[in-house]
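Exercise 7b. Backbone tokens:
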């Protein structure tokens, strides 16, 4: 990139940086440590775009589109890194450390009562899916392999199972 392009690039960047920060602050509230990294990544992408194919026709649209794409990519990668786990402990074998609070014990009993209600009211494939998801903490992809079906089908069954569990929990309350 020559010096003229660099100056123009910085002018465009300075024109939209404040709005991009606001947008990042809104969209990345759950990941505040990522904001500066995302802004930097957008700036580097913008400089690379200018260097390889010149300025975009509408720099504002290009910057916001790229910002959105990078934010989505961050959320996806954060989601894949974090495994969804739901702990349904056995009350009989449960051990509480000294840091346990009364609320934790109450939650454990509530979870156990939900588990018992689900055991009683779920049948067949629903019960099996409940076991895979909530007890064995399996991922949808792994469940699909075990059941010899597609991941989409497992997600649909999981959605229906969650609706059924909500009905069961509503009856408890």
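Sequence design result:
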């Amino acid at each position: 990139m020559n010096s003229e392009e660099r100056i123009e690039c910085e002018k465009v960047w300075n024109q939209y940086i404040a709005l991009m920060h606001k947008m990042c602050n809104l969209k990345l509230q759950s990941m505040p440590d990522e904001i500066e990294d995302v802004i930097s990544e957008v700036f580097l992408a913008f400089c690379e775009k200018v260097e390889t194919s010149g300025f975009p026709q509408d720099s504002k649209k290009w910057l916001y589109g790229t910002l959105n794409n990078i934010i989505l990519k961050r959320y996806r990668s954060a989601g894949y890194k974090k495994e969804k786990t739901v702990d349904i402990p056995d009350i009989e074998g449960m051990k509480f450390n000294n840091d346990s609070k009364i609320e934790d014990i109450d939650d454990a009993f509530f979870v156990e009562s939900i588990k018992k209600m689900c055991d009683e009211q779920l049948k067949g494939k629903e019960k099996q899916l409940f076991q895979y998801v909530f007890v064995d903490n399996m991922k949808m992809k792994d469940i699909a392999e075990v059941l010899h079906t597609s991941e989409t089908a497992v997600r649909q069954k999981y959605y229906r199972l969650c609706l059924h569990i909500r009905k069961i929990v509503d009856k408890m309350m």
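Instructor comment: The chain has seven helices and no strands. Residues 82-106 have pLDDT under 50 and may be disordered.
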